[in-house]
Structure formats: structure tokens, C-alpha cells
Design brief:
Strands 1, 2, 3, 4, 5, 6, 7, 8, 9, 10, 11, 12 and 13 form a 13-stranded mixed sheet that branches. The chain has two domains: about 55 residues, no CATH class; about 450 residues, Amidase signature (AS) enzymes, CATH 3.90.1300.10. Helix 10 crosses helix 13. It is α/β, with parallel strands linked by helices and about 525 residues long.
Length: about 525
């Protein structure tokens, strides 16, 4: 299809030779006999682009009369907690008529759009940008009666599972200062675990809800891909985008999921989700037995046997799993060797799509585009690139390399990801859920920014059991099941997380299993020594 045009504008900046210059880096040329025509066509598309750029944008208009933003500010030194857990403080009061979340306090990961609230994204690559719309999850929380108290710190461009990479400062583990809170939903997990807010809404593209939940000792739920619309949430890789709650109880996570899930008429990720307000996860948990008679639980062998899983975490989770038998469940070991391919599959997919997103080259989705952010951060400058955290630089470098040297690999990776999803689904025909450690270790000490390898090392290997379920889209929840000693100090006790994974759209099963464990056992009284066998 050709661009329609009648004449080229007089001030059109396209010059003869520009079309050739665009193709030169690709090693492609234009036949001289065609050069003039392609110059004309390029000039025409420029005029077309100028016309579209002049049109007003189209974004949902939040009801700021019903839900005014009160006292938006960067927190003062006196207001700041747990290192730098808050990104911005403000108050938006929920529905005056109440709702299922009335009285609940909420923070939002600082990648979730709130109209009138500057967004930092844990970075100083560019100045903060200010959304003009609210993310769908924000509107739904407010309609359900929740009060939103601020945005919580996230890691630098969400490219880390540590909690020291944010340009705004380090987030401290609420159990022991000096240790990681996990990432990239670092501030929100710390606030929830410390009892400073009831709920945080986080984003998870490789473990960014479940890793900090594991390290901080709270509940972190990554729903089925598409269950919760991603509208108004900054995307890294749309194929891996998930949003969900962090809470102190499984029941609160279930109630929150009822509120925020369902297709919103905008985000094509959530086309398969149920009608908003039609799920009853919270009511089901409130009424169901805290026993697990008839439930079949698979212990995923490969989830425990990866070389990076510490003996204390392995022992802690296995002891927790055995307690399911006390509740009437059947537990059996199950093996899926391809589980070990998960980190590599996720890495290739995320590096390619992540680089495209960072460079403004990601296309092909129907939904809301946060154009203010794109306008603020693009095109990249070398000054901005130098300020980027090494993980962000690495995404761009890796992505460009893979697209250049392995041009067909993203498609193959997507196909293999679908194959892995099918293999898990086959297991879920026999078992209701699978269990494994959420993270292979308890929270490590906070790292520090230095040379790239030094900066990235504290995050390496933390997502061996989480990232694969972003690729496959399966729902997964992390719950705390005990405390284990830090490897360098036996007197320091840190939370251990157990991940419960279910079949696609089977959140009810993982919530039931997690709720039963939580209701019958007190994780804070279960201590495991590093040397315990």
C-alpha cells in the first residue's frame, strides 16, 4: 500500500540521498534509476508523519474530581523509610461508598501510570515524566475503595532483581538492614512486609513480584498472562508482561486479584480474561476448607536440583512441602528436564524485545501507548546511555547483537516457549499445582554499583525458577514458609519463599493451596540452619 499524496510541502527536510543513507548500514542499495522516486516517496511519508504528529493524542481521562491527587511530592528525609522505599508520596482516597478494598492502603510500583504523578522508573537517564492518565489497575483499586498512598521505588528501568540499582537509592530488606529486598518491585515488597501498606501492585516480567516477595517474606502473585490488563504500565517485553499484587496474606492477594483482573477494552494482552468483576477468588478462599483432601501436588525435581539452589533453601522448602500431607494432599516428585532451559529461553526473548522497546522499535500491539514517556526518553543520547545502569546497557547491546547475528532466533524462542507451556500443561492434567523454591537463596547482601560484572553479579541466577513462567504465562504465587540463616552469619535469619504454580487460568488452585499452608502453619516460627541436612 502506498502513501497517498498530492504534493510535497515546501519545507520538507528530506534530501536526495537520504533513502540511500538509511539503507547503507544494512548493506542495501537503491538502483540509480529508482533513486528519485524513492526520494519523493520518503518525502511524502515525512509529510504524512508530520500530519499525524500534529493530531491530539487519545488517552483515557481519569476522574480527578472524584479521585483528586492530594499533596504529590518526593518524600522528605523524615518521610522516607527502608532506605529509599518511596518514589513519590501522595494520597488518592478510594470510593467513598466503600468496596471490597475499603480501608486498605496501597502503593504502586513506579512504572504504573498515575495522572499528575511524576514517574522515575528507578532511573536518572531522563528527567521524570508525568502521565496524563491512570493505569486501569489504579482506577479499579480506587473504585473498590482502596486508598493509594504513593508510588514505591523500583529498580533501574526494572532491569534488576536486586534492590541497590535504583538511581534514587537502595531499598533495604525490612528484616535486616544491609540485605537485598529483591527487585524490581523492591520498594513495594519492603513496604508490604514491614506493614507500612497493605497491598502493592507490582510488575513481573521475569520474577519482579515473586523475587522480592521471597526475600522480604510476603505474598507475591503473578497471575496468568493477560489476567490483569497492563494498560498504563510501562512495558519491557510485552510477551512477558504481568501485573499482580504483593500482600501479607493470600486472602488479600485473592481479593485484590478479583478487583484488578478482567479485560478493559484496551489491552490486547487481556483479551482472554474474564469480564471485570466476574471472578470470585476471594469469596472462594473465605468459604473453602483449609484442608487439601484430594489435591495432588507435584514437587518439580529440577526446581530443587539446579546448582545455584542452596542447601538451606532446598531443605526449608522440602520440609514445607511435606506439611501438605498433613493437610490431606498427595505429594509426588515430577520431572521436567526442559524446566532448566527456562533461563536461556527467557534471556533471548527478553533481550531482543527489551532492546526494541528501549529503542522505540517495538510495535504490533493494540493498547494504550504512554507517548509522554517515549517522547521524554527517545532518541537516546550518549549522555543518557552513560548514566544507564549496566543491566540496561547490556539489554541494548545484547539485543542489537542477537538481532544482527541471529535474526530468526526470536521467533524460534517464542515457538519453544509455547512448547514448554504445552509440556507444563500436560503435567497439570495430573497435578493441581507444582511447587519449588521461589529463589535459590535467601536475600544476599546489597551490592554496589561498579564495573558491569560487579554490578550485575548480585542478581545473577535469582530467576531460575521464576522467569520460565513469564515465558509460558502460567500463574505462580510465592509465599513465605520459614526463615533460614544467611550464609555469612548464622545469627541472621531471612525469609524463604516457596513458589506454587498452576495451570493456565487456574489461579483458584494455587490460591487454595497457598492459603491452606498459610492458614495452618506460622512461617515465622520455622527456622532452618544453613548447616541443617
Amino acid at each position: 500500500m502506498s502513501v497517498l499524496f498530492t504534493s510535497i510541502s515546501e519545507n520538507n527536510p528530506v534530501k536526495p540521498g537520504d533513502a540511500e543513507a538509511l539503507l547503507e548500514p544494512l548493506g542495501l542499495t537503491i538502483d540509480p534509476s529508482e533513486s528519485s522516486d524513492f526520494h519523493t516517496l520518503l518525502a511524502a511519508v515525512h509529510d504524512c508523519a508530520e500530519g499525524v504528529a500534529a493530531l491530539p493524542d487519545y488517552q483515557p481521562s481519569p476522574d480527578q474530581t472524584k479521585y483528586p491527587r492530594e499533596n504529590v511530592r518526593r518524600p522528605s528525609k523524615e518521610e522516607q523509610v527502608l532506605g529509599q522505599a518511596w518514589a513519590h508520596k501522595f494520597l488518592i482516597r478510594g470510593n467513598k461508598e466503600g468496596g471490597v478494598l475499603a480501608g486498605k492502603s496501597v502503593s504502586l510500583k513506579d512504572v504504573i501510570a498515575v495522572a499528575g504523578v511524576p514517574q522515575l522508573m528507578g532511573s536518572d537517564i531522563i528527567p521524570s515524566w508525568t502521565p496524563t492518565t491512570d493505569a486501569t489497575v489504579v482506577t479499579r483499586l480506587l473504585d473498590a475503595g482502596a486508598d493509594i498512598h504513593g508510588t514505591s521505588t523500583c529498580e533501574n528501568y526494572c532491569h534488576s532483581t536486586s534492590s541497590f540499582t535504583s538511581a534514587q537509592g537502595t531499598v533495604e530488606n525490612p528484616h535486616v538492614t544491609g540485605y537485598s529486598a529483591g527487585g524490581s518491585t523492591s520498594g513495594g515488597a519492603a513496604l508490604v512486609a514491614a506493614g507500612l501498606v497493605d497491598i502493592t501492585i507490582g510488575g513481573d516480567q521475569g520474577g519482579s513480584i515473586r523475587v522480592p516477595a521471597s526475600f522480604c517474606g510476603c505474598v507475591g502473585l503473578k497471575p496468568t498472562y493477560g489476567r490483569v490488563p497492563f494498560t498504563g504500565i510501562s512495558s519491557g517485553d510485552a510477551v512477558n508482561d504481568h501485573a499482580g499484587p504483593l500482600t501479607r496474606s493470600v486472602l488479600d492477594a485473592a481479593i485484590c486479584l478479583d478487583v484488578i483482573s478482567g479485560y478493559d477494552g484496551i489491552d490486547d494482552r487481556s483479551l482472554g480474561s474474564a469480564k471485570p468483576g466476574s471472578t470470585t477468588f476471594g469469596a472462594h478462599l473465605s468459604q473453602c476448607s483449609k484442608r487439601l483432601g484430594g489435591v495432588r501436588i507435584g514437587i518439580l525435581k529440577e526446581g530443587f536440583e539446579h546448582s545455584t539452589v542452596s542447601s538451606s533453601v532446598k531443605h526449608s522448602v522440602l520440609k514445607a512441602v511435606k506439611r501438605f500431607q498433613d493437610l490431606g494432599a498427595t505429594i509426588e516428585e515430577v520431572s521436567l528436564p526442559d524446566h532448566l532451559h527456562g533461563p536461556a529461553i527467557w534471556t533471548i526473548q527478553q533481550r531482543i524485545a527489551g532492546a526494541q522497546t528501549l529503542l522505540g522499535q517495538n510495535t504490533g500491539r493494540r493498547g494504550l501507548y504512554t507517548t509522554e514517556m517515549d517522547h521524554a526518553r527517545l532518541p537516546w543520547s550518549d549522555d543518557g546511555f552513560q548514566r544507564a545502569f549496566p543491566s540496561t546497557k547490556n539489554v541494548i547491546i545484547n539485543g542489537l547483537y542477537l538481532m544482527s547475528r541471529f535474526p530468526d532466533l526470536y521467533g524460534k524462542t517464542t515457538n519453544i516457549g509455547r512448547q514448554l507451556s504445552d509440556k507444563y500443561q500436560a503435567i497439570f492434567e495430573k497435578y493441581d499445582v507444582l511447587v519449588m523454591p521461589t529463589t535459590p537463596v535467601v536475600a544476599p547482601k546489597n551490592g554496589k554499583r561498579g564495573l558491569p560484572l560487579e554490578s550485575l553479579k548480585p542478581s545473577m541466577g535469582l530467576t531460575i525458577n521464576t522467569a520460565i513462567f513469564n515465558v509460558t504465562g502460567h500463574p505462580a504465587i510465592s509465599i513465605p514458609i520459614g526463615l533460614a540463616s544467611a550464609p555469612e552469619d548464622a545469627d541472621i535469619m531471612l525469609p524463604v519463599g516457596m513458589q506454587v504454580v498452576g495451570g493456565l487460568w487456574q489461579e483458584e488452585k494455587i490460591l487454595r493451596v497457598a492459603h491452606a499452608w498459610e492458614s495452618n502453619f506460622d512461617w515465622k516460627k520455622m527456622h532452618f540452619s544453613t548447616n541443617e541436612n
